[in-house]
Amino acid sequence: MTVPYEAPDTRFGLSLETALDGIGDRVGLHEATYGAPFDAFVGKTDDDRLAAAFSYARAQTRPPAIVLGNREYSLSKGPYPYFPGLRLVGSLGSGEREFAMTGPHSVVRVGGSALFAVPAGEVRNIWISGIQFRAASASTHFQVPVTDLANGPRVQDATFIDLAWVGFATVMHARHLRCRIDRTYCNEGTDTQFRLAGSDNYYWLTGGYLSSTKLAADRFYLHFPHMSRTDVGPLYITPEKATGIRIDGGYGGLTFTGTKLDSTGRDATRACQGAAVLITGGRGITFDKAWFFGNAVNPAATGRTPADRGQVFIRGAAADVTFMTPQFSGFDAQAGHTPSTTPAIYATSTARGVRVVAPMAPNGGTKLIQQQTAGTVSTFAADGWSLSVA
Prior knowledge:
Blueprint: H1 14-19, H2 23-34, E1 36-37, H3 46-58, E2 66-67, E3 72-75, E4 80-81, E5 87-89, E6 107-110, E7 114-117, E8 122-135, E9 141-143, E10 154-166, E11 172-177, E12 180-187, E13 194-199, E14 202-203, E15 208-211, E16 220-228, E17 230-232, E18 235-238, E19 243-247, E20 254-257, E21 260-262, E22 277-279, E23 283-288, E24 291-293, E25 312-314, E26 319-324, E27 327-329, E28 345-347, E29 352-357, E30 368-371, E31 377-380, E32 386-389
Protein name: Pectate lyase superfamily protein domain-containing protein
């Protein structure tokens, strides 16, 4: 394998030169096994080195991982198109760290309009891990938003793991097939951070964190315009002002397990103003072991019509929606600002087949579920809970 590196300096004597026999072959073997060091590529700036690294990787039959060092980088000449086989990883031992700026850690400050872009058609086989990305401005995107989520370019078989995104306008507005996002921090975004459509995905199966002080009340942290056959794990959303999750469509098989929507520590102006979960369409949606606290403080602040009602608001053509053992915590143990008359779940007359199984309201939570028309919601093992028409 020909590699774009120079052999180390041999000025220290013949013994070292002898020991370095075959250095090119050994560097090639190291690259195939561990990746190509970002800082070994030639360039005056980090953008120059990234362009050289990606050009080299694209030319290989099996593109090596491009490995960042334990330092801070600056990239501002994007967006760089994703390419098949792209691997970009942080230094050994780097993981997601929302606030840490010390090693071992690979930090990338992103300027310009965006760092990455999805090329026309589709791109597959991407891996990005172990890096903290920080936006240089509130208008910078991690990835150029895909606006056509029905027929636009698609990312397939991609993994985004052990990452942090801080201060981006958006992180991913994308079409996904068989993609994975896991063990991530995302904080201080300025618009809906994730707007994803597709199927067969695994998101945050071992956890992640989403929060921001900068989202408006009418925005969302995670928005699925259309998502099917996808699992979402114990993602912890602090839905400051904005709604945590919105779902507009899907054919079925969308499952949330252990997802938390918690406004702890936020006052009445900073807690989630509208519903923590807004479902306007889709079929076959399941929430299992979800946690809710301190949401739906002031639904009028979202400006939505109809106004949200409940910590979970189900309207539109949503059908076959099930909540298994959800917890809607009260304020006996910590302060919160949800009005006491706010239902845990509210479903309009256009929704169908809403089921709530073994709900809990620890710490003095409100045991109230409401429906616009009788028969829309069914409850099971809901001792002490009230199901009413309102």
